[in-house]
Amino acid sequence: MTGRNDGGPGEGKAPVVVGLDQLRRVPRILTLGTFDGVHRGHQYLIDASVRRARELGLPSLALTFEPIPAMVLRPGAFPGRISTAQEKLDRIGVRGPDEICVIPFSRDFSERSAESFIAELVERAAPVEMLVGEAFALGRGRTGDVARLTALGREHGFRLHAMPRIVDGEEVVSSSAIRQAIVHGRPEKATRYLGRPFRVTGPVIHSSHYGRQIGFPTANVMPPSDLVPVADGIYASLATVPGEASPRWAMTYVGTRPTVNTGVRQIETHLLDFDGDLYGYTLAVDLLRRLRPDQHFASVEGMIAQLADDETATRAYLASIAAETAILDRTTNLPS
């Protein structure tokens, strides 16, 4: 981690501990949430807690749950993560909290009452003030909503701040909305809500090398199995190559290559004007716009012709946003 990801108040790397029992008991300001994706609403909440801590001259603490509670409680209905656990911690860290605490989440933990959890939190972390989102709730049956947490704060001697949610148009910025945007091939919406492009990161793996045979060599990445699935199709993208300061223009394919019947779903990125060997490296791919859905072609020649058109469209789109340097800056501030 090399710095802030998009202009938050923090700097440096926050130490991470696992479990409330690993905290030193000192008065502090804390914020609490799942924080999947660390989207604009999460950033607002974490930034507010860091600022408040500085105003009072106290350390700040960000508490988060892993695994994501929905992965444990509703595995069949949960579409997938926006970011890996490590990326989430990195993005929380660059907001500037003095410490991050990961609370292991399990079915047994989900049965704890809000009262029991808050009692332990007060004993271990000694919060002076706690900041949560206005729709936040915890404890068995989600009974620890803002009203109950406010009452518990009065009982235990801390003040609760319920922060308003961020709204984009008529929709609340939320992790659920971002997941749906990704699933339905709307990366521009995901970018707007995240404050940066949606990123897929993984090691470059060997495949059939078919792309090189047809003039479009690709770096193939198998995304983490618990990541939210990306809609099939062709995307204008940016690829960050390890050791390079700026991302490269790229065209990314997501799908099973029905024309050549491979059947294996992968994310394949063609880096424009690049002829290096990336096997064994970790590649970070930021999806900016879905140019078209996946499709079956009657011939390989027809597919190649369409890919050439896709590359032209990719170059045109990336050229049109080249002046929007904020997107590039936010993309490159975290390591791949």
Descriptive tags:
alpha/beta; Elongation Factor Tu (Ef-tu), domain 3; 2 domains; 14 strands; 24% strand
Q: What is this structure's SSE topology?
A:
Layout: E1 16-18, E2 28-33, H1 40-56, E3 60-66, H2 69-73, H3 85-93, E4 99-104, H4 107-110, H5 114-125, E5 127-133, H6 146-156, E6 159-163, E7 167-168, E8 171-172, H7 175-183, H8 187-194, E9 198-205, H9 210-213, E10 219-221, E11 233-240, E12 248-255, E13 266-271, E14 282-292, H10 300-320, H11 325-332
Parallel strand pairs: 1-4, 2-3, 2-5, 3-4, 5-6
Antiparallel strand pairs: 7-8, 9-10, 9-14, 10-13, 11-12, 11-14, 12-13
Radius of gyration: 22 Å
Low-confidence stretches: 1-10, 328-336
| Category from helices, strands and their pairing | alpha/beta
Q: How many domain modules? A: 2
CATH homology-level superfamily of the largest domain: HUPs
State the separation between the terminal residues, measured CA to CA. Answer: 9 Å
Descriptive overview:
- The chain has 336 residues and is an alpha/beta fold.
- The chain folds into two domains: 16-165, Rossmann fold (3-Layer(aba) Sandwich); 187-332, Riboflavin kinase-like (Elongation Factor Tu (Ef-tu), domain 3, Beta Barrel), CATH 2.40.30.
- 32% of the residues lie in helices and 24% in strands.
- It has eleven helices and 14 strands.
- Strands 1-4-3-2-5-6 form a six-stranded parallel beta sheet, with helices on both faces.
- Helix 5 (114-125) crosses helix 6 (146-156).
- It is elongated, with a radius of gyration of 22 Å.
- The chain starts with 15 loop residues before the first strand and ends with a helix.
